[in-house]
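Customer ticket, subject: "Can you confirm the structure for GtrA/DPMS transmembrane domain-containing protein?"

Message body: Hello, I'm evaluating your service for our small team and ran a test protein. I'd like someone to confirm that this is what the system normally returns, since I don't have a reference to compare against.
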Amino acid sequence: MPRRITLDHLGEMLRFGLVGGSGVFVNLGVYVLLHKLLPQDPESVFLPLPPTDFNIRWVHVLSSAAFVVANAWNFELNRLWTFRAGERASRTRFLHFFAVGLVGLALQLLLVTLLIHPRSPIELPTAVFDGSTGFRTRTYWAQLISIAVVTPLSFLFNRLWTFGQSRVRTAPAHDDAADQARA
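Agent reply: Thanks for trying us out. I re-ran your input and got the following:
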């Protein structure tokens, strides 16, 4: 029998969206704070990757640090509020959440790279994103766009794998009148 979407499911999706939205602010807040503390341009090289012409850039380091903080934030809020796992959330559940997050981070870093790389077909144009203000900072937009793309995938995998067993499962309604009619 196909499962139906209930008000509980809709409430869960709404709560996950609110937690995710708060996580976006945490992620971007940490990113902006670290960007302000960094003495050089986030697009500068952190670590070259010889013999290729690719590099790990400061933007990747900042994105990774922001991810770790936002991931811990989201796990706790999802555990307590969205999926109401309470104390049933173990280290294993956190490891699942973190593993999903790491896959999301890899996708996010790839997308950030494509959005700032000069030879990428989806590079954010420096004529528009010239860094003259916070709203015109290319790495901020790359971070925000990558979060928006990766978030739906994270929800799906966390709902199914990380918190799949924490939701309360109810037994089908029992119809005493139907049972008596059959007897």
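A couple of notes from the result: The two ends are 25 Å apart (CA to CA). Confidence is low (pLDDT under 50) at residues 167-174. Feel free to reply with more questions.
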